[in-house]
Structure formats: structure tokens, C-alpha cells
Amino acid sequence: MKTIHYNEAQYASAKKKVERIKGFYRHLVVYLSINMIITSVHTVHVMRDGLSLMDAVWNLQTFFNWVPWGIGLLIHGIVVLNVPSLLMGKNWEDRKIKEILEKDRKNSSMNWE
Fold first, then answer.
1. Which residues of the chain fall short of a pLDDT of 50?
2. Which helix (H) or strand (E) holds 63?
């Protein structure tokens, strides 16, 4: 097996990325845990007031914490996991730059003819 050596800056950068990803996963676990507890407590409380289980679960207030916090979690995930680059592929940026340069070159040559 070939040993690969990394310089200190590369190692520090990789370690920082791993810490950010770990932070996102912690955020996800806390989000799910806390919201499940809140939802359970809220559901039991509402059921004591006479609503059925389904009415209690689908009560709009049940989702009050899930949605705004979920939007924040989604943004956190997009930033940390670098979703735009995952969706567009590894070489998307280079291909797009070449495409734009080629288009600009053709347009400028057409203007001089």
C-alpha cells in the first residue's frame, strides 16, 4: 500500500471539515431528539384535553418547533455538506468556465466578421 503524505495545512483543512460535518450530525441528533420529546409531551397534553391521538399529532402547534428549526438545519446541512457542488458534480465549475469562455470567444469573433 502506498503511503500518502500530507502537509500541515492540508491536514488542518481536512480536520476542520470533519469537525464541521460532525457538528452538523450533532445538530441533527439534537434536532430529532428534542423535537420528538416536545412532540410527545405536546401530544399527551393535548390528548388530556379530549382530542384523539390523530388530532393531537396533526395539530398545527405540534409542528411549531419542527419547521423553523428544520429550515435552519437544512441550511446548516447545505453549507456543511457543500450540496451545490455535490449536485453539480466535481468538475462542473471548470466545465462551465470553459463553456462561457468558448461562448464569449465565438461571440467576439462574430462581432469582427
1. none
2. none
CA dihedral 6, 7, 13, 18 (to 10 degrees): 30
CA nearest to 45, candidates 32, 31, 57: 57
The pLDDT of residue 113 is: 52
C-alpha span between 42 and 30 (Å, rounded): 18
The structure's pTM equals 0.67
Task: Write the pLDDT tens digit of every residue in 31-53.
Answer: 999 999 998 888 888 888 888 88
H helical segments located in 1-113: 8-48, 53-57, 66-80, 83-88, 92-112
The CB-based long-range contact list for 26-34 (8 Å cut-off, 24+ gap) reads 27/73, 27/76, 28/73, 28/77, 31/69, 31/70, 31/73, 34/65
